[in-house]
Amino acid sequence: MSVAKALTIAGSDSGGGAGIQADLKTFQELGAYGMSVITAITAQNTTGVHGVYPVQKQGIKDQLDAIGKDLPPQALKTGMLGSAEVIETIAEKIAHYQWPHVVVDPVMVAKGGAKLLQADAVQAIMDHLLPVATVVTPNIPEAEVLANMSITSLEDRKRAAEQIASYGVEVVIIKGGHDDSATAIDLIYTNGQFEQLEGKRYSTNNTHGTGCTFSAAITAQLAKGSSITEAVKVAKQFIELAIKEDLHIGSGHGPTNHWAYRKAYV
Ligand SMILES: Nc1ncnc2c1ncn2[C@@H]1O[C@H](COP(=O)(O)OP(=O)(O)O)[C@@H](O)[C@H]1O
Ligand SMILES: Cc1ncc(COP(=O)(O)OP(=O)(O)O)c(N)n1
Question: Residue ranges of the Pyridoxamine kinase/Phosphomethylpyrimidine kinase domain (predicted)?
């Protein structure tokens, strides 16, 4: 049996809704073998981020080499990376091991407002990570930072996607969770073409980790051999159900339900 192996390079969320924990749950639910390189530990729950403890650079390098020398992934994603130095290290290792299908979730700020990326690290994402990436999945505020423009309309989103693609990444997906439209529309840009993936928008407080889960689902599908178009469609179904069937745990912004897709489709 050939096993699809998916890697997440991200921060740990002690509350289990975002970061490494959301990624590994999503990989498992979609039938990919999950592996992790932890960049930082956060003390986090549904009420917010209460502490951030970065892993030292050598520790990150050693984790990447442990994976690279023995367990090459068929696809990987990045999440919370923290600093420019860490981003450069990761980009070098991706190039060194020639890992395919790199999905970059350019995590900058948690929904509660905590900063998860240093300001000077944005340039490192553009200069080092996007040139080795296949897909990048910014939400609207992240796309505004990457494209250095404000986004108030679909036309703005399209211009931002073109700008972000110019940094060398094949597919740009600007997600619509932060939009105020009646439906949740994700804009996909690839090879000069735009496509809109539209889903129902649910009114809920339980959207902690939506971006992590969405990008992890794309990664799991790519690891299993799906095309990018198919992988993104499954990821949209996965996150839509995870939001719809929310768990109602914790007293703040609760996590999504990583079991919901399996219950519906498997
Ligand atoms: N309330 C919602 N109802 C339905 N889909 C949503 C909702 N909020 C976010 N999504 C979807 O979840 C995914 C992640 O989007 P988003 O929340 O913008 O990411 P992030 O967590 O990075 O801010 C996207 O596919 C988006 O359309
Ligand atoms: C450790 C860690 N990584 C990433 C995030 C941000 O996750 P995201 O999916 O964007 O969800 P919200 O923070 O917006 O709920 C995080 N919080 N922690």
Answer: 13-257
